[in-house]
């Protein structure tokens, strides 16, 4: 935040608390360009990763014409006019063995038996379904339904042509994509390096989550929770430890994390107080510095958004729910942007409609996020039951299926209203 900004302070001493929309706009303006580096990755490890460049097919798929039905490979003209009353008679002169390339085809007026996936023998151009034939003998067949050229056949390159773009740069790889890439023989593919996210917990009261905390101390929940949120987005978390309420210690860890990370998260460093040093230390990390300190949302108001050279730094509230909400609102879009994924214009969250089951009050001028439990009711719209609790109560997030957003222009929602619920991953 530049020194030229007017230093308005809220009742807690934060400067320039901004609306959610303004915070997001300021964040988007300051995001560095995606510089995701290309690496080659084995196909079986590529699920969920982002294509670093357009991937072209090295061959046709299928490489040869294949049958899409069980039946008989024929010359289509040999079946013209066939009906149940006046069938076409064809000699059965061979059979296509699965997994083998047929070296010869039937003569005119003859056919070869073929199974789904079998390669069409030379000279044939269609397949008559088994259901449209009547076997007269082992070597003679009645065809009771005509076929046109190409019927029940997938031709060479009809699925994918050699040189065709299979996946575009920025595409997130899905299970069906992996199947297609395997089908054209691609064993290694170019993907973007994962976004690196450094995580630092702060506070003299914090101990490692695996320790038994002595009186006055608490376990570090946020680092593990934030790391899980990072992994869901296919980014890679790195832990840099717990910083004491000491400016020198916090600055040293932040410098170390900044040097190796695309994003750094400080947990519990955003509130205003004599022992909360996050703002002071972050401001010295690089230009342009702090972009936002304080957003008109609940929970998550004291969040810090900063950029230090090419690294984004977020000071997240220490309360677990506030930290989780702040992550979803600000860190998630940053990871997505830096990951190289192409925007597709589709909704980023799973959203359902539900009936609100109690009145919810909200202060005008801020955006509220309310956790809700969804209960299904037979033959009725699902019910959204608010789960109320303080921002330090992580159990409210565990019990919830998602959240509803109350816009800053509203003063609450009424029982019975139909609301949109953003479901958690």
Q: Can you tell me about this structure?
A:
By secondary structure, the protein is an alpha/beta fold. The protein has four domains: 20-36 and 193-339, Molybdenum Cofactor Biosythetic Enzyme, Chain A (3-Layer(aba) Sandwich), CATH 3.40.980.10; 38-61 and 158-192, Molybdopterin biosynthesis moea protein, domain 2 (Alpha-Beta Complex), CATH 3.90.105.10; 66-154, Molybdopterin biosynthesis moea protein, domain 3 (Molybdopterin biosynthesis moeA protein, domain 3, Beta Complex), CATH 2.170.190; 350-423, Beta-clip, CATH 2.40.340.10. It contains seven helices and 28 strands. A hairpin with a 7-residue loop joins β24 (367-375) and β25 (383-386). The longest helix has 20 residues, at 320-339. The protein is elongated. It starts with 19 loop residues before the first helix and ends with a strand. Mean pLDDT is 91; it is low at 1-14.
Residues in helix, %: 10-25%
Low-confidence residue ranges = 1-14
* Share in β-strands: 25-35%
List the strand order in the largest sheet. 7-4-6-5-9-8
Identify the CATH architecture of the largest domain: 3-Layer(aba) Sandwich
Query: What is the domain total for the residues?
Result: 4
Short descriptors:
7 helices; alpha/beta; Molybdopterin biosynthesis moea protein, domain 2; 425 residues; elongated; Molybdenum Cofactor Biosythetic Enzyme, Chain A
Compact description:
With 425 residues, the protein is of the alpha/beta class.
